[in-house]
Design brief:
This protein has 8 helices and 7 strands. The chain is an alpha+beta fold. Helix 5 runs parallel beside helix 7, helix 6 packs antiparallel against helix 7 and helix 7 runs antiparallel to helix 8. The chain is rod-shaped, with a radius of gyration of 35 Å.
């Protein structure tokens, strides 16, 4: 099957058996084209290029629909207007050098005979689906197309979530190591928490959007479509729950690091306190012997200095033994 598409606009026609063919990108031809019974058309448009925006404006959509398709900021959702569904989905950003949690939006206009999707950046899940069309494995209905898109989005997100899980495992091992966590581990912990929170921010709304479409009373959704949508919903739910678990594990690691740092600080403060307590009576004794008044014992004795030193040593040994018995010093 030839591509017959530009980089900004890609048009496919489908019959009820999933057979796909490319179509001319003329919006009027697409919106008024005759497809076989139960067939439909999918138009995928880059809405952030002049050609793509012009195509959308010429497609005859309602103003509020056009506004939703070109909105700059979106969150996953599903809104039904009569027999039309408007959806926003998100996929991980797998562009080299990009952050996966910087998720790319996919806006969808879905009706019985036409599906229009727009994106602002390249989304590999969409490319995966189009590659499957080139192999002859196409969706049989608009609902099937949405389910396949959602499943492809989940497929692309799974390795990212698995990598976060592995990083959390390595971080837990580093915390349990004898040398304890260092500055690099603390920076890694902050990065894991940030990524999991940002990914989770879109996963749960995406689950709700797919679930909403599944339960809506739309005539063009078959029982098979609803089953596929339910499967996609469960996949997204599992990813969201894994992100929840990663976030909770990161919080546990954070608590461990905080406890270790507090324990280290307490130990250091204890050592300083013990040292101060040992030298306090010695300082008192030497201070008394060093005052510039008459009557200091041993002032005229040549052995008095060594006797005082011996007394200080005895006091230090006795205090050390006492603190060890009290458990303030290590065994």
């Amino acid at each position: 099957m030839g591509t017959g598409r530009s980089a900004e606009i890609r048009i496919y026609g489908f019959d009820c058996e999933g057979k796909a063919w490319s179509m001319h990108p003329d919006p009027l031809q697409v919106c008024t084209s005759k497809v076989p019974d139960h067939g439909f058309v999918w138009a995928h448009v880059d809405g952030w290029t002049p050609e793509g925006r012009k195509w959308l404006q010429s497609a005859g959509m309602e103003p509020f629909v056009l506004e939703a398709m070109l909105a700059e900021e979106t969150r996953p959702r599903c809104t039904v207007h009569g027999d039309i569904a408007l959806m926003n989905l998100r996929g991980v950003n797998l562009t080299p050098g990009a952050e996966p949690e910087d998720m790319i939006s996919l806006r969808l206009y879905v009706s019985e005979h036409i599906v229009i999707s727009t994106q602002i950046r390249d989304l590999q899940a969409v490319d995966d689906l189009m590659d499957s069309l080139d192999r002859g494995a196409g969706p049989a209905s608009p609902g099937d197309l949405i389910a396949r898109l959602a499943l492809r989005l989940a497929d692309r997100a799974e390795p990212v979530v698995a990598a976060l899980n592995e990083r959390a495992d390595n971080l837990e091992d580093a915390v349990d190591a004898p040398e304890g966590p260092g500055r690099a581990e603390r920076a890694e912990l902050a990065d894991i928490r940030r990524e999991s929170i940002l990914l989770r921010r879109y996963m749960f709304p995406q689950r709700d959007a797919l679930s909403t479409l599944e339960i809506e009373d739309l005539t063009w959704l078959s029982q098979r479509d609803r089953s596929r949508l339910r499967e996609a919903t469960e996949r997204v739910t599992r990813l969201a729950e894994e992100l929840d678990a990663i976030r909770d594990r990161a919080q546990v690691v954070q608590d461990q690091i905080t406890d270790l740092r507090a324990e280290t600080m307490n130990r250091q403060m204890l050592i300083l306190s013990v040292v101060a307590a040992i030298f306090l009576p010695m300082s008192l004794l030497t201070g008394l012997l060093g005052i510039n008044v008459g009557g200091i014992p041993g002032a005229g004795s040549p052995t008095a200095f060594w006797l005082v030193c011996l007394l200080l040593v005895v006091i230090g040994v006795l205090l050390g033994w006492l603190f060890r018995r009290l458990g303030l010093l290590g065994k």
